Amino acid sequence: MKGTFFQKPLELVLNIDGESWKQGDTISGNLNVFNRGAESISLKDFGVRLSFGETKKIKVKDPNSFANYNEQLFEGPTNISAGSEVSLSFNFPLAKNAPISEKYKSLYLLCGHIDNPFENGILELSILPCEVITNLFQVFENLLRFKVKALKNKQDCIEATMVVPTSKEYTSVQQLKVLIRMVEDDLDIDFNFKLKKISFEGGIVSTKDKKLQVKKILTPKEYLTYGDAFNQDMVLKLLQEVIEEVKVKPII
What percent of the chain shows pLDDT beyond 70? Predict the structure, then answer.
């Protein structure tokens, strides 16, 4: 990914290795600054900053648009003489639970003077769930037929809103939201079901809303095989244990 920006008389070229990243990856690249003017210019407080931003706020240049995560600045009293070029390399490791990209929120790279974000070059980044969580969603979709409708950040988790299969055994499930995060190397999953159950209270048949929360913590021994490949069969079995709790059982 590459972006070219102008802060006269400076030209800033931001080069980033890759087009998208997953949680736990490292965002790396370099910033090249060209002085197109006739005088030397100080690059004090110039550099690259990794920030989380909201699109709506950015459009109106709200000063609270960005939450800053990391930065790499030119060191020392760096001056760039007329007609010359300097370069700054950067590496920003992403946490295992780094925020993923949403429709109106994402991580951004800003380049230029750190105190003037809206005069800087701004590039939106595409951040995806980590490999383990991506594989978990594939088990949900391909083997359990629960489709991922939407993903959003919720505190340090990814919240997945699921589309429940239309078969009769799931008629009691009105909604399923799953909160997923990595806790060190463990996969922490919270199932939040909204159910509509048949009630026979007072001899009257009616329906009653009920919530069911189930937590599963999968260790690497459970979600990985000996070759560090994703253990699809084991994960499927553990998820099926949860799903069985909400299936409508036939009346015998």
Answer: 93
- For 77, the token pair is 């009293």
Which residue is associated with the tokens 């931003």? 53
Q: Tokens 């004090």, residue?
A: 44
- What is the per-residue pLDDT across 6-52, written as a single tens digit (0 to 9) for each? 988 999 999 999 999 999 999 999 999 999 999 999 998 899 999 99
The dihedral over CA atoms of 195, 201, 206, 208, expressed in degrees to the nearest 10, equals -20
Residue type at 78 in one-letter notation = T
Rounded (10°) CA dihedral 50, 56, 61, 66: -20
List residues bridging with 160 in a β-sheet: 151, 178
CB of 126 closer than 8 Å to CB of 151? no
Q: Which two tokens stand for residue 248?
A: 């409508």
**Residues near 240 by beta carbon (within 8 Å), at least 6 away in sequence:** 144
SS3 label, residue 214: strand
- Enclosing H/E stretch for 55: helix 55-59
Lowest mean pLDDT among 58-72, 107-121, 187-201: 187-201
Please give the model's pTM, rounded to 2 decimal places: 0.87
Alpha-carbon distance of 171 to 196, in angstroms, equals 8
- pLDDT, tens digit, 9 for 90 and up, residues 228-247: 899 999 999 999 999 988 87
CA–chain centroid gap for 90, Å, is 21
Answer yes or no: are the C-beta atoms of 149 and 140 closer than 8 Å: no
What is d(CA 139, CA 216) in angstroms, rounded to the nearest whole number? Answer: 15
Q: How far apart are CA 142 and CA 52, in angstroms?
A: 32
Contact 128, 139 (CB under 8 A): no
Q: Do 178 and 190 form a contact (C-beta atoms < 8 A)?
A: yes
